Amino acid sequence: MSAPLYNRDILSLAVATADFPPLEAPRHRVSARAPLCGSAIIFDLDTDEAGYVTAVGMHVEACALGQASAALLARHAVGRGLADIRAARDAIAGWFRNEGAVPDWPGFDLLAPARDYPARHGAILLPFDAAVTAFEGQAAAA
């Protein structure tokens, strides 16, 4: 292992989830849980008519890595569509399987130490899984 699993940057990101409180009246709300570790998220998503994210809100109950992943998603989701979020989610899952480089999502390199801890992978993927599910729910509701 080249870096500590929990460091100052990850812990700073973990507390940043407070910058994205649940939305009062989101277009879509998803509750999701990572079965292996028990992490949970309530993820709110608003989109414009073209299907691009306009706002994200959430309540996260996860380890610092799951919270950090949620904060990175929320910080950089506005202006992105389903294809962007799904591509990031798939890149993260592939990276965990040693299939590719660190995912091309702003700040995700900070989570690189977690790659060696499979028990944490579900918590890190959880926000991206919830976002994809929220988008898919939007499409089904339309």
How would you summarize what this structure contains?
The chain has 142 residues and is α+β, with helices and mostly antiparallel strands. 43% of the residues lie in helices and 16% in strands.
Q: Which characteristics define this entry?
A:
alpha+beta; 142 residues; 16% strand
Outline the structure in words:
With 142 residues, the chain is α+β, with helices and mostly antiparallel strands. Helices cover 43% and strands 16% of the residues. The chain contains 4 helices and 3 strands, in the order αβββααα. The protein has a 3-stranded antiparallel sheet, with helices on one face. Helix 1 crosses helix 2 (64-77), helix 2 runs parallel beside helix 4 (118-141) and helix 3 packs antiparallel against helix 4 (118-141). It is globular, with a radius of gyration of 14 Å. It starts with 7 loop residues before the first helix and ends with a helix.
Topology:
Layout: H1 8-15, E1 28-33, E2 40-47, E3 53-61, H2 64-77, H3 82-96, H4 118-141
Antiparallel strand pairs: 1-2, 2-3
Helix pairs in contact: 1-2, 2-4, 3-4
Q: Between the first and last Cα atoms, what is the distance in angstroms?
A: 46 Å
Total of helices: 4
Specify the biggest β-sheet. 3 strands, antiparallel
> Which sequence of SSEs, written as H and E, runs from N to C?
HEEEHHH
Q: Give the helix proportion (percent range).
A: 40-55%
Low-confidence stretches: none
Structural class designation: alpha+beta
> What is Rg?
14 Å
Rough outline: globular
- Beta-strand content: 15-25%
**Extended strand count:** 3
